[in-house]
Amino acid sequence: MKQVIRVGTRGSMLALKQTEEVVTALQNVFPSAVIRVITVQTRGDMHHDLTPPRTQGMFVKELEEALLQGSIDIAVHSLKDLPTTSPPGLIIAAILPRKDPRDCLVSRSGQKLLKLPPGSSVGTGSPRRAVQILKKRPDIHVVPLRGNVTTRMAKMREGRVDALVLAYAGLLRLGLDGEVTEVFDPWNFVPAPSQGVIACETRCGEGWEELLAPLHHPETAQAVGIERLFLTCVGGGCQKAVGAFAEVQNGWVRLVGMLEGKVGWREGPLATRETMVQDLAQELGGKR
């Protein structure tokens, strides 16, 4: 009998594109397996267009419940949506290679952020993006704008805003990178911790961890582990303006962190990463 693997995902276009990447990777490793994609509507999907800001776990809770109830075997997430700790009985078993960590600007006029006319409006639902936009351009307006990527793009085309700041990886996955006006340097416009990374979550102790092991990318996991540690150290959540980006090469770490507009940098040996992150978080005013 062929093995059946039930993969759970949100139903947005971007979530389905990310799930396609996971399914392809699984098929390459287990060509005889039967893979079924099951869409799960999360609270974030039901209320994505409302004005209250996003809360931690709003795009993952229902997927995790489906895992715990046994209706799916693997949940595909954007890692940046996942809290830094998993519920009892669940584990992040695979972190896939990072697509791209950067944010980007899409503008109706084709003008870059520093060239937009004074008084222009830029849409984002992210406090992290808002504080960095205003730091660079205090003379423009940040407009709270929610919804999935295609919804936000449609709102911009309707003239509700002059530009958007979005995750570049999402546009790449959707084939919309041709719409991009400007891609920001992650050392200068700090992305969300683990931005651009797909994670696979599953139940502990049932063999799914071993099945997902070939999909795991240790280099990406190492870098995003540092970024997520920074998030923990500053007490970050969806309501805080928190950014972090780390690169690890040949045992050497470079890290930039941002908290409520204040930015700091560290670099040093990988073995000192915990101390490095804690020192940076304290410098930027994170929780003690």
Automatic annotation (TrEMBL):
Keywords: Porphyrin biosynthesis, Transferase. GO terms for cellular component: cytoplasm. Residues 5-204 form the Porphobilinogen deaminase N-terminal domain. The modification S-(dipyrrolylmethanemethyl)cysteine is found at C238. Binds 1 dipyrromethane group covalently. It holds the Pfam family Porphobil_deam. Transmembrane segments: none annotated. InterPro entries: HemC, Porphobilin_deaminase_N, Porphobilinogen_deaminase_C_sf. Coiled coil: none annotated. One of its GO terms (molecular function) is hydroxymethylbilane synthase activity. Pathway: Porphyrin-containing compound metabolism; protoporphyrin-IX biosynthesis; coproporphyrinogen-III from 5-aminolevulinate: step 2/4. One of its GO terms (biological process) is protoporphyrinogen IX biosynthetic process. Belongs to the HMBS family. Monomer. Tetrapolymerization of the monopyrrole PBG into the hydroxymethylbilane pre-uroporphyrinogen in several discrete steps. This is Porphobilinogen deaminase. It comes from Candidatus Caldatribacterium californiense.
